[in-house]
C-alpha cells in the first residue's frame, strides 16, 4: 500500500509588534534621521559622538536607547529590524537588560558576536562603543577560507594524478625499451649461431 503524502507544519515566528505598539516608531525614525540617536538627554551627546565616529569611518550607525522593558528579549531585535528597514545602516536598540540589532552591512553572526562581549550592567555609551568596535574589527571570512582550501585540495589531487600518470608512462617506456633491447639481443644471438656452424663445416671439408 502506497503511503499518503506527509504534511509538515512549520511554526510561524511570533509576532511581537503588540508588545511594542506603544512606541512612536515614526518619531524615533525622524530623530534617527536627524541626529542618528534616540536616547535620554543625558546620554544623547556621547552617543552622537559614537555615531559621528562611525560615519567618519564609512558606517551608518543609529542608536536607540529605550527605558521600557519588553519580553521576550527578541522584541528589541524586532524593533531594531523595523527601524533599520526605514533608516538603513546598522541599528542598535539598547533596552533594560537586553540589546537588539539589525544591519544591512554586518552579518547576524558579527552582530551577535559584538553584543556577546557586553557585560551585564555596562553603561550604555560604553556598551555601544564595545559593540561597534567589535563588529568593525577585521574578521576572517570563513567562506573564502573554505573555498580556498577546496581549491588547494582539488589542485593537489590533480597534480598528484598527473604525476602518477607520468610515472606510469615512464615505467611503460622503460619496460618497452628493455623489451626491444632483449629482442635485438636475441636476434643477434640467433644470427651468430648459424654462421659459426658454417665455419665448422668449412673447416671439416678442408681437412
Walk me through what this model shows:
This protein is α/β, with parallel strands linked by helices and 207 residues long. The protein has helices spanning 25-35, 44-56, 74-87, 108-116, 124-136, 142-206; strands at 37-38, 61-65, 90-95, 98-103. It has two domains: 25-136; 140-195. Strands 1-2-3-4 form a four-stranded mixed β-sheet, sandwiched between helices. Helix 1 packs across helix 3 (74-87) and helix 2 runs parallel beside helix 5 (124-136). The radius of gyration is 40 Å and the shape is rod-shaped. It starts with 24 loop residues before the first helix and ends with a helix. The model is unreliable at 6-12 and 193-197 (pLDDT under 50). It comes from Gordonia hirsuta DSM 44140 = NBRC 16056.
List keywords for this structure.
alpha/beta; single chain
